[in-house]
Specification:
The protein is α/β, with parallel strands linked by helices and 311 residues long. The protein has two domains: 128 residues, ATPase, nucleotide binding domain (Nucleotidyltransferase, domain 5), CATH 3.30.420; 167 residues, Nucleotidyltransferase, domain 5, CATH 3.30.420. Helix content is 38%, strand content 22%. The protein has ten helices and 13 strands. The strands form three sheets. The protein has a five-stranded mixed β-sheet with strand order 3-2-1-4-8, sandwiched between helices. Helix 7 runs parallel beside helix 8. It is globular and about 60 Å long. The protein starts with a strand and ends with a helix.
Length: 311
């Protein structure tokens, strides 16, 4: 028995086939080409699904999407990195065309579920997960089950307020964790300091800054690049302390592409966390980094299928 798990992002579509013995028998990733519009992207997604069903006799499909999602119906609500989708019933679209059960969820939720069962959260009772990238996603797992809130949209941890006077977030509020602990924050911080005249190796990248560029210059010892990561770490630590104080988790798992640069922010993150978390919480809450990398949401999708099949 094989199951197909897809991580459907704005840049890449990652997909893996996992069998009933919990072995990944196939994994691949391809460019999404989201700029080509919904019709092209949906055709690309369906091609992958049909090929995997044909090649591996897939019995069910899970799709993780970087979007607010109705986890029952599979409706997407304005995914920020999939232009043209706006409010789109992906569940209906896929289920009408695919001959096996299909489950759809938010990518950070399935990342959390994967880390809970197979990664850094394994063995915990209550686990909270954060993904750091262009934005900040979150997922909450209680006793092996995702917590969705009353209407399916719970766990938007990237939108807790860290600084009410902070930078504008894509959601319209100011000072969200997402606006202060993401690659978007790094780029904005560096651009502001360069505009103020600060000397840096990053000056020649003023118009082409990315998180990766800033990370590479931090490795070369650039002060501004390292300072950007230190500020990010402090902001992240404030967020982690708030999350720990609210949920009293066994583990908070930090992952996403930006977590690969933790050598430049982990110390400040932990200092701020220890300064702000309640004594009764921080003595029991462990902060860990993701252990599954690209496979976090793939594993999470697998467990989402298994949980639904067993119900």
């Amino acid at each position: 028995m094989n199951y197909l798990s897809i991580d459907f992002g704005g840049t890449y579509i990652k997909y893996g086939v996992i069998n009933e013995k919990e072995k990944v028998v196939y994994f691949n990733k391809v460019k999404t080409f989201s700029h080509c519009g919904p019709n092209f992207v949906l055709a690309r997604l369906l091609d992958i699904i049909f090929k995997m069903i044909s090649d591996f006799d897939v019995l069910a499909v899970s799709i993780a999407v970087a979007s607010p999602v109705d986890p029952e119906k599979g409706i997407l609500y304005n995914p920020p990195n999939l232009p043209g989708f706006e409010v789109f019933d992906l569940g209906k679209y896929i289920r009408e065309r695919v001959p096996v059960p299909v489950f759809i969820d938010n990518d950070a939720n399935l990342y959390a579920l994967g880390e809970y069962f197979k990664g850094a959260g394994e063995g915990s009772k209550v686990m909270v997960a954060l993904t750091l990238g262009t934005g900040v996603g979150g997922g909450i797992v209680f006793d092996g089950n995702l917590w969705y809130g009353a209407h399916g949209f719970g766990g938007e941890l990237g939108h807790i307020t860290i600084d009410p006077s902070g930078p504008l977030c894509n959601c319209g509020n100011r000072g969200c964790l997402e606006a202060l602990a993401s690659s978007t924050f790094l780029i904005g911080f560096v651009k502001r300091r360069l505009a103020e005249g600060e000397a840096s190796l990053l000056a020649s990248f003023r118009d082409s800054l990315t998180g990766e560029v800033i990370y590479n210059k931090a490795k070369e010892g650039d002060f501004l690049a390292k300072e950007a990561f230190r500020r990010l770490g402090k902001n992240l630590g404030i967020g982690l302390a708030s999350i720990a104080n609210i949920f009293d988790p066994d583990v908070i798992v930090v992952g996403g592409g930006l977590s690969g640069s933790r050598e430049f922010f982990a110390e400040e993150m932990m200092e701020e966390f220890n300064r702000r978390a309640l004594l009764s919480t921080k003595d029991f809450c462990k902060i860990k980094f993701s252990e599954l990398g690209d496979l976090s949401a793939i594993w999470g999708g697998y467990f989402r299928i298994i949980q639904n099949i067993r119900r």
